[in-house]
Task: structure prediction
Amino acid sequence: MSTLTKVLIVLLTLASISLCAIVVTYVSSEVNYKEKHDSLLTRFQAAKQSEDNANKQFNDLKGQTDQEKLALNEKIAALQQNVSALEAKLKETEIARDDARRKEDSWEAAAKDFAKTVEVNNQLRTNAEDQLKNVNAEFIKERAQHEQTSTALREKMAIITQLEDKWKGLLEEKTELQKKLDGMLSQYGKLVAEPVAVTTVSEEARVAALAKDIDLKGSVTSVDLKNLLAEISIGEADGVKKGMRFHATRGDKFICDVVILDIEPEKAVGWLEMIQDGVELQPKVDDKVSTNL
Result:
């Protein structure tokens, strides 16, 4: 046997031994790999199951989260609308507050002006009342003097009437005597003397005296303040004459004078004079009129 054959046999033997060792190792290790594979497979399946459960829980949680998110978004949108509405109301409230402040300021200014006006009016009223008291006192004094003057005038008018009557009688006697004297002178061819003019009382004085004596009384039936005219309830049938002066009164207050311009049987129209100041003292219907105060 050659050396090469021996070497080959030795190599083949070593290769057989190595192959057996590899087979034994493979067989022994194959059981371990299978157990590991089964273990890993079991763990993988458990992990897969856990993953599926986790995915399911995740999907469920995600769905729930999405629903909650939608609900929260709706709530947020509603809250934003409420915030917008509240902001709008806040702006309106601020505008109303500013308007209220401006009105309050204007009311305070108006109240101050009104207080000043009231104070001035009170002072004016006080002054007017004082002046009215003085005027009333003077009016009462003048009225008393007027009554005294009227009484004295009536007495004098009565005396004048008596003197006029006497004068008329004397004039009649003079006329008779003049006629006799004219007759006597005419018999002897003498000229007739011209009668001497006698001064007579003016018509206005006669009317005034007549008005005082007869003491006419009536009332105002209509008033035209624009043209300063008034109508009274008595006329020519009651003895009213043109130029007569009637005194209009209301209670114990003097209103004005009415000077007669036109006369009718049952009424007369006159010119308004001495009209008093103040609306309450303006002549009006139903004021009393008389020739004597």
In short: Confidence is low (pLDDT under 50) at residues 190-203. The CA atoms of residues 135 and 141 lie 10 Å apart. Strands lie at 217-224, 229-232, 245-250, 253-263, 268-273, 288-290. The longest strand covers residues 253-263.
